[in-house]
Amino acid sequence: MIINHPLLGPRDASEFVYKGDASLIERPDWQADNAAELFHDYLYLRDNPAGEHQELWYHEQGDRSWLVVTRNTLTHDITNVELARDAVLAKQAKKSGRGEK
Amino acid sequence: MKHRGLKYSGFKVIKEALTGHKGWKPVWRTPKPKKEYDVVIVGGGGHGLATAYYLAKEFGLTNVAVLEKGWIGSGNVGRNTTIVRSNYLLPGNEPFYEFSMKLWENLEQDFNYNAMVSQRGILNLFHNDAGRDAYARRGNAMMLAGADAVLLDQDGVREMYPCLDFENARFPIKGGLLQPRGGTVRHDAVAWGYARGADSRGVDIIQNCEVTGMVIENGVCSGVETSQGTIKAKKVAVCVAGSSSRVMSMAGMRLPIESHVLQAFVSEGLKPILPGVVTFGAGHFYVSQSDKGGLVFGGDIDGYNSYAQRGNLPVVEDVCEGGMALMPMIGRARLLRMWGGVMDMSMDGSPFIDKTHIDGLYFNGGWCYGGFKATPASGWCYAHLLAKDEPHPVATEYRLDRFQRGAMIDEKGMGAQPNLH
Amino acid sequence: MSQINRIDGGLLDRTQKLNFTFNGQTLEGFAGDTLASALLANGHKMVGRSFKYHRPRGIFSAGSEEPNALVQLRSGAYQEPNTRATITELFQGLEATSQNHRGSLKYDFMAVNDLFSSFLSAGFYYKTFMWPKAFWEKFYEPVIRAAAGLGRLSGQDDPDIYDKSFLHCDVLVVGAGPSGLSAALSAGRAGARVILMDEDFRMGGRLNAETLSVNDQSGYEWATQAIAELSAMDNVRLMTRTTAYGAYDHGIVGALERVTDHLVSSNNKPRQILWRVYTKRTILCAGSTERPIAFGNNDRPGIMLAGAVRAYVNRWGALPGKRVAVFTNNDDGWRTATDLAVKGVEITAVIDSRDGQPPVAVPNGAAVVMGGRIVDTQGRHGIKSITLSNGQKIPTDCLAVSGGWSPNVQLTCHQRGRPTWREDIAAFVPGGELPLGMMVAGAAAGNLSLSSVLQDGHNLGNKALSDLGFKPTTETAAKSDEETVGISAFWHVKESKARAWLDLQNDVTVKDVKLSHQEGFRAVEHLKRYTTLGMATDQGKTANIPALAVMAECTGKSIPETGTTIFRPPYTPVAIGALAGRARGKDFRPSRLTPSHSWAEEQGAVFVEAGMWYRAQWFPKAGETHWRQSVDREVTQTRASVGVCDVTTLGKIDIQGKDAAEFLNKVYANAFAKLPVGKVRYGIMLREDGIMMDDGTSARFAENHFVMTTTTANAVGVFRHMEFCRQCLWPNMDVHLISSTEQYAQFAVAGPNARKLLQKIVDRNHDISNEAFPFMACGEVTVCGGIPARLFRISFSGELAYEIAVPTRYGDSLVRTLMAAGEEFDVTAYGTEALGVMRIEKGHAAGNELNGQTTAQDLGMGRMVSKKKDCIGNTLSERENLNRKDGLSLVGFRPVNRSDELKAGSHFIAKGKSAEMVNDEGWMSSVAYSPSLGHSIGLGFIKQGSERLGEIVRATDPIREGEIEVEIVSAHFIDPEGERLRA
Amino acid sequence: MPDYTLTANTPLNGFSRDFPGVSINEVNDRAIVSIVAPRDGEKELIKALKKSYDIELPNAGVLSVSAQDNAVLFCMAQDQYFLMFDYTGNTATTVVHSYLNDTAYLTDQSDSYVMIRVSGANSRCLLERICPLDIHPTAFPVRAVARTIMEHLGTTIIHEGDDNFLLLSARSSAYSFLEAIETSAKNTS
């Protein structure tokens, strides 16, 4: 497979290490009342779709960035790649934006 | 229930040969689905067919249908490296796999079909003291559970497999854990044998019947929607490893499972050179030689979620690198065919056989890449659960809620990272 | 008599005679021959035996689809089983032997199987061999196994070397026949980076075997010209003897180049190279494969594909027979008759299954039977005659059969492509979703006439160019006369009573397919698995479609409704050695060497692999004959005075930033935020599931600067995890990570004289006295006159100990200096064994305890897990099963009988309980002989261990037939108060 | 005079060997310092780099080149740069700190790598065997830089000049890395 790194261009997937579903970037609040349940669902439950999947890849043999890759698990087609940090910051901005309203 | 099918025997083969093979009947019927069954098993793979067989044979439940989306045996029972073994470590696992091993040992006489159960031994190599200690711990656990295990030193390994690289290896072989009763089984025949045994006891095996939805009302599951219409059932037993998440999502469930691709490989046919199964711990490689002469081998999963039933080159190379590091005599053997299967990789590497929170809906899955050797026990224990609504004594730990309780069964100690199990 | 069947013509170099042997008989051929063409030229028809019935087998095809002519090539360790004679280039001294027979090729004892063939029907073995039960493994299976397989591996290490490589291009053209050459020409002329590869040793494809003309010259002359033009282009790379064997995700193609297989010896160069091709566009020009027609006894030597017969005559000047008959269902079969007749070969008959008129002029003297059927053939070791359905018998020594051509769609199916049926050519053509960037041209796409093939290749070359933004040139495609390609599907002769073969190698006949249908194995995959159809070394290239047609007939469905089997890589088999490349022996994986490696080697150290690292395990001294002597001495000397150990392999992570302390507070389970500058703290790191991930220390060198150490085994994983935390969980923190594992050589200096030793090399302006530099202090110092160093007062051994780090370039020098400076203290170097002994004596957990299954609580460090802060793993570490009252805990063990040896891996059973799993209470994780205590000691996990100190339990070890009584004791065998390390 | 002195060695003891069409040489006169701007401190760093080295922060994949100490600057991670320059002393960070002051977090990496220069007409052919990246001049021109994996080893490749590549890989596996290169040279010559 080839992952089109947003900064470095297309790179062979063998430079990367796979982690799993990109929802792992959304770690629950440890002080929530149902923190135990939230952490269980966060760590263990997966949508595991047959189709488009957002997932985390780490460019270990490259620039050490964590990426959120949108890849189809049936065809392996990759339709989007972004830096995980950007994805997290965007989610945070969205959340705090909503919070203000 | 009486066996109403044709009895197979050497005599029968000779008789048919002399009369033009006109007497052979279809190994299973092609029935139309009834409106309702006591149990509908979703998934006509090894585990589903075994479940049907034991439901009929051991628990007297014959108003049973097995629904298969494609052709029976098209799942992982039809695409694996045929290894059977019970060399597990943890108390949640070892008794179950040893139960399975014992069922394998009597399977052919039991279902009157030669699945070529061949106990040629499985040898796991170790390369350092820590590896030896870990295998001693495991071997002892196996023996405490009534299984067989032998700890070999380097000479012991050399005697069995003189053609391994002992002299020049990057990771020298120091010894191995041998389970003499481990071995291989002709995988397709397992599906066909169970299908034949179940069919002859009245189970309806329905191919080309895809489940498209679950009939669930008020927390009770009462049947399935299929490409051949709605089929009612007192109990719906899902058994579709590889597609578990897809099917259970029809019941609104998320599972502690990811689907990954595991590749397997076979070489051209060769005269016998490997007596048993060998696994190479320092690389990612395990191998056996089939009765037809092909070297059947594999390694790690590709490592990313996939439903594609095909893998990529890096893992092919990685596996062959392990092969050449272990046994440099295979360099001139040619790889004939490679394929991929979709694995239910669970969050601790161990499976599930459990009721769900929906009444009447049962789940069996999460076998990672070890489902084949579990086939008989999985079928038996699932049948036990379906028939009696309580888990079989050797399968009490395979619960869906074990992560909530912190009761993981993590043989490899990799944590909630399915691609590492 | 040599080369009795050699005729004029062909693309051979007749000035180069080559001698070779077949089954020990010396024969002669020419450069340009394949083994098959040379065998035919020498009149050899029978070259092997079939898999199951051991029927005589000859040469069937002229290419990689060959199911029959498999030989054992070369000898000794170079022996290469199952080699296709049809693609083996002849070389001087080539040795080939036939395979799969007992006795001679001609008189094979196993041929008795053929007499019992009716008992050996499809799947017969599933129905028998079950009684008595023990007989399967003891008798039946060994017999079956001994008979199985074809060729033989030597059992010796493969003496050749292999290599792998990467290629990048704009356009990859697979196949250098007419369409491939056209495609490469149009893409190459426009300046794209083009790779053209072909499995043959001569490019040109069918043009080399046909008499058709292109641009008013002979086909192969045009091909030669095209190849010359292409090889003059800098942007085009031509690769012969190279098979594109697999299409992988995102346009990656795997290819195998056979570099030296056509040479007597590899001469220390790689025998084969595995190429990974990264291409933007692939134009598949893989041509098509002719398929046979099934009829009675259609497997005899001398029965060949019609296209192969004329290839041998046209390209190789080798006559497959002197009196040739043709059986065809299409116009192409007639070309064999015509071409051979031109060469003066006698054509005895042309049997065309179609009714009507012959499509071309009938060769002189040939009987023509339109609407004809062959029902049987005769000839024990080679065909002698054929019998037609009307009873007519026609003598012939070669029967050329054509059942039409199947496009080579394999690569299009390696991903999601599923071929579609084209009734007009009675064949599957590429369909469905092709691999990324792949286009198919020529015969592979179902264009079967030469003129259309040339045009198609040209067009797709241009299409690739415009896709990629290149401007095509104005050149046009090469031209050829339009030939006729009519076909009417005809698969097997129903009138045949005798067995009619579909899969020649695996002996699958029409009857087997019918039986498979009768027994319910009707899905294509069931058919394949039940009969073994298409599972031979040729993967059914010539067999699958006719078999599918027979099944379709049985079910009353059409061929496309019946389906097609899925083609999987590789296109043709690939040597495992090539897929492994260089990775074997010591080169299997890279080696990491510690800075003291050369020095340790000089000391005669014994090394052990620790992951990729080689570490000194112990340092034998003169007179020490057993490893225990060395290790005991190293421990004793260290505890008595001072020892030095290379600990460079521990992971080191440089952590900087304003939020570095807070970051550590989140990744470690214990508190770190308030660690003072100049201090080190032991830290435990959990996974998010609450299980121990790693332990180590972190030293605070400045307010915003920490240096973390990890275990050797987890160095990479911990770094990756921390980058995940930093980038994905807390991206707003000012914290930065960089590995400095390689930057520093680090040595533990341990023992009562450690300080004294260090004081000799640490520059005097740095006070390292106990007061100025107490236990758990850290700081930057200089050594040996200004060399920068880092000093940590930490102890794994339990002794007064330091770790000192210098830039790696000084590592070798530092160990020599420490040993020299320590001479007065009788310093010893110690290896990983002594390190292990001392940590067990001290009760420190290591890899055997941190095995991914244990919690901080199990390790006796539960209270370190902070509940007052957010850190990885603390929430889920609170789950009930991880906090059971009867949970495991790490304790020490000693043998009740002190002379007993403890064994790691033993399980604990309470006294009086039986040794079975329900009574299993835990296991021994690490053991050592303690020279300090004079007996064996161990660490292990046992239920409620910390509450059971003093209790005696059984350590049972059935796998080594041992069981001893052990006492549960504190894990701190040495200096439980920790006085030594604070000294 | 201290009682003891330490002598430095290089990862490959100054290895140098010629093959037909290609030379393989260890490089050991360059220091490497990792430079990271504190969060929100990039502007200051850019200013300091401009002032001292007259150099820009490079985009990923290309070198910035300075006349000062023959320094080159390239991006190793999202916000992390390597400054490589002529220096053989022990305190490379001190040198860089004297230019950049506290505008960046500095980490000495000089001893972390083996540096091997592969040069000559056959160098691309050699590298094709182990380098998965497209290093054709159209795709990887002079001054291009990338980190990738070669024979299981993380490697940074810098296109220094025509047919001239500098490779950086971990110091501890220097001999394995050298073997990968030498084997490639043997197999392609």
TrEMBL record, chain A:
- Its Gene Ontology molecular function terms? sarcosine oxidase activity
Q: Which GO terms describe its biological process?
A: tetrahydrofolate metabolic process
Can you tell me where the transmembrane regions are?
none
On the tree of life, the source organism's domain of life is: Bacteria
Family annotation (Gene3D superfamilies): Folate-binding superfamily (3.30.2270.10)
Which Pfam family, any one of them, does this sequence belong to?
SoxD
Report what the protein is called: Sarcosine oxidase subunit delta
TrEMBL record, chain B:
Molecular function in Gene Ontology: nucleotide binding; sarcosine oxidase activity
What is the protein named? Sarcosine oxidase subunit beta
Compartments reported by the entry: Cytoplasm
Domain (Rhodanese) spans 39-83
Main location group = cytoplasm
The biological processes this protein is annotated with in GO are: tetrahydrofolate metabolic process
Q: Which UniProt keywords apply?
A: Cytoplasm, FAD, Flavoprotein, FMN, Nucleotide-binding, Oxidoreductase
Read off the NCBIfam families from this record: soxB
What's the Enzyme Commission number for this chain?
1.5.3.24
The protein's annotated catalytic reaction(s) are: sarcosine + (6S)-5,6,7,8-tetrahydrofolate + O2 = (6R)-5,10-methylene-5,6,7,8-tetrahydrofolate + glycine + H2O2; sarcosine + O2 + H2O = formaldehyde + glycine + H2O2
Q: Where is the signal peptide?
A: none
Question: What Pfam families does this protein map onto?
Answer: DAO
What are the annotated GO cellular component locations?
cytoplasm
Top-rank taxon: Bacteria
Q: What is the lineage of its organism?
A: Bacteria, Pseudomonadati, Pseudomonadota, Alphaproteobacteria, Rhodospirillales
* EC class name: oxidoreductase
Keyword Endoplasmic reticulum in annotation: no
Q: Which cofactor does it need?
A: FAD; FMN
Q: Which family does it belong to?
A: Belongs to the SoxB family.
From TrEMBL, chain C:
The record lists the membrane-crossing segments as none
GO annotation, biological process: tetrahydrofolate metabolic process
In Gene Ontology terms, what is one molecular function of this protein?
Answer: sarcosine oxidase activity
Q: Which residues form the GCVT N-terminal domain?
A: 597-869
Matches recorded under InterPro entries: 2Fe-2S-bd_N, FAD/NAD-bd_sf, GcvT/YgfZ/DmdA, GcvT/YgfZ_C, GcvT_C, GCVT_N, Sarcosine_oxidase_asu, SoxA_A3
Where in this chain does the record put each SoxA A3 domain? 498-582
Keywords (alphabetical) are: Oxidoreductase
Q: Does the keyword Oxidoreductase apply?
A: yes
- Any idea where the Aminomethyltransferase C-terminal domain is? 890-975
Q: Which NCBIfam families match?
A: soxA
Similarity remark: Belongs to the GcvT family.
Name listed for the protein in its UniProt record: Sarcosine oxidase subunit alpha
Lineage summary? Bacteria, Pseudomonadati, Pseudomonadota, Alphaproteobacteria, Rhodospirillales
TrEMBL record, chain D:
For this protein, the record's InterPro entries field holds: SoxG, TrmE/GcvT-like
**Superkingdom assignment:** Bacteria
One Pfam family here: SoxG
Name of protein: Sarcosine oxidase subunit gamma
Species, as recorded: Kiloniella spongiae
